[in-house]
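Morning F.,

Quick status update on the modeling queue. The single chain you submitted on Monday has been processed. Sequence for confirmation:
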Amino acid sequence: MKRILINELVENEESKISGFASKIRDTKYMIFVILKDRTGSIQVSLDKGTQEELCKELDGVIAGSVIEFEGKMVLSEYVKQGGKEFIPSKVNVLSKAEASPLEENANIDTRMDYRWIDLRSEKNQLMLNVQSTFVEGMREHCYKEGFTEIHTPKLIGAASESGSDVFEVKYFDRKAYLAQSPQFYKQMALASGLERVFEVAPCFRAENSNTNRHATEFTSFDIEFAYIDSFEDVMDFEEDLIIAGLSKVKERYGDKIKELFDKEVIVPTKPFPRIKLEDLYKELEKRYNYQIPEFDVGDMNAEAEGLAYKYAMEEFGHEFIFITDFKKTKRAFYHMRKNDIPQGFDLIWRGAEITSGAQREHRYEELKKQCDEKGLTKDVEFYLQFFKYGCPPHGGFAIGVDRFNMLLLGLSIKEEMFIFRGPNRLEP
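C-alpha cells below.
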C-alpha cells in the first residue's frame, strides 16, 4: 500500500500513514499516538483489549520515533484533533527514538546543538515554509517579468567588492575566497546580453558580528536588470517584488502566522516612501532629538534604521522606506554617481536595512576612475574586463532572505535560519 499524507485521509478508506510520533500516551485501556507529517497531525488510537498484539509493537517506543500505520480514519466527536482519529490494523516502527536531549524551554545555543530536533516544532516548520513561500512568490514574479535564474561561483580568485571581510580558503596551490555576493557575476551576465537575471544563493561575510541579525553565511535573493533610466526603476521593481512575495505568504499562511507568532502579514502599497539621507537626519533630530555619530555621517547605523522605521510609520503609515543620496565614501565603487552622489538606496523595514541597491556604473572609464579612487583597481581587474566591450545601463539589489523572514516573524537570526553560522558556530 502506498503512503498517503494525513490531510488526504478519507473516512473509512484503508490507508497507510507515517510520520513522527509527537506524543504517545499510554493509559490503562488505550494507547494514543499523535502522528505528524508535513501536512498536519492525527490521533492514532489503539485499544489494549482488542488490539493487544498491535499495542505490543509500541512497547518502549517514545515520542520522536517514526511510525507507520495502516488502517482507517474515522470521525469522532470526542477527538480534539479536528474530530478525526485513525484506527490502525497494522503497526510498523520505522525508527525508534531515544529520549530527547532538548527540554521544553532550552536556551537558543542548546537548541542550535540539536537543531534537527528543534526544527520539528510546529512553529519552526511554519517558519521554514513561510521563508520558502516568500522566495516562491518572488521567483514567480521574476519569471513573469522575463528574468533568467543564474548560478554564480562561490569560490572566487580575488577578494570581491570591498576587498575585506572575506573568507580565505586554500585552493590547490593558491588562495581563493568565498564570495560575499554574486554582484560581479550578475553584472557579467548583463554584459553577456541576458538583460534580466536573478539568483537565490549563499553569501559569506567574515564579520565578527555577534548580533541578533548578522550571520557569516546567509541566503541572498539577488536581482540585476538592464536598460534602466535611473535607480528609481530599481526601487520600483523592488516594490513589486516584495509585494509579490508577501502576498503569497499572506494568502497561504497569514492566519497561521497570526496564530503561532502573533504577527500580521502586511502587504505594502505602492509607492514606498522615499527620503534623502540629509533630510532624514533632519527629521530624526527634530522628532527624536537624534544626531548621527560623526563616524556614521553619510550612512546609517542600527539606531538610525530603527528611528527611520518609526518615522515612516508616523509620517506615512508605511512599514517600508527607501533612503537615498548616501555619501560616496560609504558606498561601493561600482555605484553610478550623478553630481558626485551615488545613485543608490537602502530599504528599511521594521527597523532594519533589508536591501542596498543602485544603478551601477556601466561606462568603463568612469568605473575605472572610481576603482582608482578607492585603491581597488588591481584587485578587480577581472571585473573591469566585463565593461570594456560594451555593457548596457543597469541596476540591481539583493534581499537577505533570512533577515527578511526574521523581521516578518519577530525572531532572532539564530532562530530563523535553518542552520545558523556565526563567528562561534560551525556545527551542526
